[in-house]
Amino acid sequence: MGAPHESGQVTSALRLTQALLERDASVQVWTCGYATLLTQRGQGPEKPRNLADWNRSYPSLPGLVEGLIEAFPDRLHWYGCRFCSDDRGVAEHLPQVVLRPPAGYAANVAAADKTILVGVI
Amino acid sequence: MTQHEPPGGGAPGRLLLIESRGRGEYTGFRRDAVTQVLGGQPTVLFLVQDGVMLAVPDSDADLDRFQAEGGALAVDSFSLTQYGLDSAKLRPGLRVAGMDDVADWILDPATRVVWH
Known about the structure:
The structure holds two protein chains of two kinds. Chain A is an alpha/beta fold. Chain A has helices spanning about 10-20, 60-70, 80-85, 105-110, and strands at about 25-30, 75-80, 100.
């Protein structure tokens, strides 16, 4: 939940997701509000070039997410709220992302052993 | 205590509270942590992001009481580095941990997790 660049929250969430996957857990990530922009395909896999480090490539947030999904294709499942996504004009998501209606969140929670809510929508 | 067992032991019904907010912000969560410990609930409070500012001594009265009443306090090593606190003097009894440890704690069926 919450805007991706408001704090270090996304970094923490991705770090924890990776740590759980490395321990053979299955993880569902659900994004709401401006967090749906995390998987906006139009950002491309890399960030704009850093003028202070011209030859270094920095992955974009969608790039990081896609890399994580590709590394754990059978155990990381990424969902986004369709209403929040449409409301914020996210035209196209990464192909691996499943958009669901807001009520789908309850179904995802019911299917999980544990749910951790990070951030405020 | 095993390497990835949370501080405070492996007692059943353990509560893992993750605090990402810092000094002066939203103190209710930390007061709730104190309440849990006073009620006999084994509780780990993990400081991450802005929360690592509370890892130094005399930074928060609620955390002082949390530790005094038997709560287990841990802090994220990555966040300490990000905030320039990896060489700072930290609270006595504070355990420096990482997301690998947090993942192990979360995967324990006896642990419930709340993130603030």
